[in-house]
Write a structure and sequence with these properties.
By secondary structure, the chain is mainly beta. It has no helices and 9 strands.
């Protein structure tokens, strides 16, 4: 008679968590997001004033707030090949939503005259005590009459990046 022995090994692991009475639960996972929408199809047959060129929807629960960097590939000029239609004003402004308590709203912020190279950084503050929820900001631009410019597809590429505030 043959005896067959089978060995089974089970490894049980556990984690002991001690919760002290009155201790706060862990914070929510970090949310720091931005959705962007650009505008196409501008009418360059004449000048324009305060034309919306982009929208940004921001959500953030970072206690240090957030910063948004806007990089303009053509330094606030619509270009078509070597031809340019310079923007005469670029403004960052609030549209709607809830900005976290402790942060400053962008009210007609002058982007064009505050560029550092090709970049503008909006820093609404370093501390928020409530969440920023579906906060929408827009970039608006103005330009002079581009009379004499050849027809074509004129564009400006804007790269927007959100980061946790410092």
């Amino acid at each position: 008679m043959k005896i067959r022995l089978f060995y089974f090994c089970f490894l049980f692991m556990g984690l002991v968590v001690v919760i002290k009475p009155g201790a706060l639960s862990p914070p929510d996972p970090l949310v720091n997001t931005m959705q962007c929408q650009g505008v196409v199809g501008f009418d360059f047959s004449g000048s324009s004033s305060n034309e919306q060129i982009a929208l940004f929807i921001i959500n953030s629960n970072a206690v240090n707030g957030f910063d948004v960097s806007f990089r303009f590939a053509n330094r606030c000029k619509f270009t078509c090949g070597t031809r340019e239609i310079p923007m005469t004003a670029v403004i960052l402004d609030k549209v709607s939503g809830v900005l976290g308590t402790g942060l400053a709203e962008p009210i007609d912020l002058d982007v064009l005259h505050n560029l550092s190279g090709d970049e503008f950084i909006w820093d609404p503050g370093a501390a928020q005590t409530t969440e920023t929820v579906n906060y929408i900001v827009e970039l608006r631009a103005s330009w002079a009459n581009p009379a004499g410019k050849l027809a074509g597809f004129y564009s400006e590429a804007i790269t927007a990046v959100i980061s946790v505030g410092l």
